[in-house]
Amino acid sequence: MSYLDERAGLEGKVAVVTGGAGGLGWPISRDLAKAGLPVAVCDRDAEAIERVSDELAGFGGPVLLSHADVREPDQMETFFADIDKMFGRIDVLVNVPGGGFVAPLMNTNAKGWNAILRENLIYVFDTTQRAVERMRTQDSGGSIMYITSVEAHRAVPNRAVYGACKAGLTNLAMTLSLELADDNIRVTT
User: Fold this and answer.
1) Is 123 an active-site residue?
2) pTM confidence score
């Protein structure tokens, strides 16, 4: 038994990584698969999904790869239904996607704000609800992680909306840690 197996208690667990084929998501997906977890990965970049498919499959565990955009609830519904069919459970959810533009708040408008909110915050409510529903049904708890950035904790000029979203994720994690504690579901950033 490896140190990771002994310490992490990951045997029999299933991980889901949104935005898991590129950027910060790819090393997370890869390391979870290396640790022996079945992994479900979605990403809006079809080419990235294609690039990582062979390597993920090479770790020997079951892998579900889906070309899906977290900002689209119907695509997430399909992705989570596919997870149900293939794995029948979710123990770990890692929400990675995010991004935005650099501009002073006074040079932006509602269309831009809404785009940044959807890409950094709103989808997290959707994927979190979907994962928690399944974790509660399993009655075995779980772990949810939100990837944020330094802008969640310090002011950065020209990144007001993005920073507010990332700070919102940090607060969401703290709040859900309390709300979901009785379900043995940990929520962290």
Assistant:
1) no
2) 0.95
Q: Which two tokens stand for residue 118?
A: 């959807």
Cα 157 to chain centroid distance, Å, stands at 27
pLDDT per residue as tens, the chain (189 positions): 565 566 667 788 999 999 999 999 999 999 999 999 999 999 999 999 999 999 999 999 999 999 999 999 999 999 999 999 999 999 999 999 999 999 999 999 999 999 999 999 999 999 999 999 999 999 899 999 999 999 999 999 999 999 999 999 999 999 999 999 999 999 999
The amino acid present at 75, given as its one-letter code, is Q
Contact 155, 163 (CB under 8 A): yes
Q: Among residues 3, 123, 146, 162, which one is catalytic?
A: 162
- Phi/psi at 139 (5° precision): 60, 30
